[in-house]
What does this fold into?
Amino acid sequence: MIELDKTTIQGLFDMSAGLVASRMAYIAQAEGRVQSPPVTWLEFPQANGEAHVKSGHIAGTKGFVVKIATGFYDNAQRGQPSSNGMSLLFCTQTGQPLALLKDEGWLTDMRTGLGGALATHALARSGYSNVLIVGAGLQSQHQVRCLQHLAGERPLSFQIWARDINRGEAAAKSLREDGLDVEAVSDLQTAVARADAIITITPAKAPLIQADWVRPGTHITAIGADSPGKQELSADLVAQADLLVCDLAEQSLHEGEFQTAFASGKIKGDSLVALGHVLSNAHPGRPNNQAITIADLTGLAAQDAAVALTALSIMQPDTELTEAP
Amino acid sequence: MIELDKTTIQGLFDMSAGLVASRMAYIAQAEGRVQSPPVTWLEFPQANGEAHVKSGHIAGTKGFVVKIATGFYDNAQRGQPSSNGMSLLFCTQTGQPLALLKDEGWLTDMRTGLGGALATHALARSGYSNVLIVGAGLQSQHQVRCLQHLAGERPLSFQIWARDINRGEAAAKSLREDGLDVEAVSDLQTAVARADAIITITPAKAPLIQADWVRPGTHITAIGADSPGKQELSADLVAQADLLVCDLAEQSLHEGEFQTAFASGKIKGDSLVALGHVLSNAHPGRPNNQAITIADLTGLAAQDAAVALTALSIMQPDTELTEAP
It folds into this structure.
């Protein structure tokens, strides 16, 4: 069994390979080629903590993944990170463990960044340039780095908004040091009005972005809402969008950004398009340059499998990730 | 994070400590102090394989467990073991990983042995001596070793029955080499009639033991049936028993030995007694020396947590397994 720690994984992870694997994961999910049992939850209220276990397998790949993620929110008081976790890969031919990835949750952050980039790049207008990131946590950096990587040579212009502009400034500074074009902004409504694409990554429980702030042609990727009660966009904005895309409808409608609009009857469940179908071109995606499009990403075990397989391939470069037919 | 491999765990595992922990686990389960989400299953039919993930936490202990177990039944053709697996322990105060136990499934075998011993010793007649093991797989050795350990100085007399007496002889020989009193037998009905206690550990799908074979005063611990369709005892035997004990009623009634008698209406679900209540003396257990008692064990995440905590305590002998209050 290969064992990799966080630093090794971070140093060697290939973002291009990760994007390829993540795209494959979304398409497999949309096409029904993913085995992904219900997520297991454990709760530790006395320590303000929780854990969940996701497992999954993309048909045709050599490994299935079991990912354990923990969130213990009093850790910050002790100067420790709240999030932790690891992924395990097992061989789908023999059941033997292939790899233990002690990534401390980094691969989850990375796959969230890769997913946001894939959705945003696929659904924004051709030639999109101004990208607004709503939220200045660690994930803001993943979103910026992954999307610029996907955009390739064409430089994007990023703005980061946070309630506390100092946090936005800190995130922007860190990214500028790597040559990225990023500035922090203090007025969310103004920033929304000038953005071609918006990525929201906050834990908000009330809408941050109102329907009449968003100009035609804008794409929004909503990532923050991942459990009941969370919401970043007004339900009217969701209801008025011309195209609603998601990674997994049952999650989006009950735990994701679309839960509020769905619960109030403003959208119908069967109106959602799977991101994988857009990425595979089975669905045309954005209908025109005036449409408002929204992608709601809640996270898939298939993405966890994709990044774990990507990390494993670092150590087994001559091993194909796919099984022999 | 402490990492232990199978050989290290086997060499250092303390059976007495394991029995204490396993008893604690059953009692906690019966008293509602165990957090144990539904088991996750993955299936790999093209490789004749399956995997399941169990997770659980016994309230008051410092670690929660995530156990991954695989069964790939074509491995034997390649000279590899069918079963594999590992357990992970995480801190319930911070979420950090405490231990990775690469036991390859050995701890599951051990906890099954410990559980069989606890149930049998608690429910057999005082002074029981003749113990029949039905099935000669690896688990037969765990059952014999754990029960003799629990019986302490008092030597028990074991018989092992298997369809193929050569397998029974092989198991008996291995155990005799460690000074245990074990013989293989070929006639199941005769062996049943003279046994004080019987432990069944086969994958049978039709009853091996008939109701009129069993003499008054016998205790039976049925372990083999752990999924729909499996059965080792006749439904009439189950229906006629004076006391039915189980580790977890919902499992016993739907996946365990009691499924057939329950489905046919021969027993009622509310007639089952939790093993933990017998072990804690909240229930008196065996009513008299003439009663036939049956315990059906299907396996608990709490037992997995108990043996993982026991293994961890090997490496942290000065660390209490229980949290500070």
Observations:
- The interface with chain B takes residues 1, 35, 37-38, 40-44, 47, 49, 51, 53, 55-57, 64, 66, 68, 70-72, 75, 78, 80, 83-84, 86, 88, 90, 92-97, 100, 102 of chain A (CB under 8 Å).
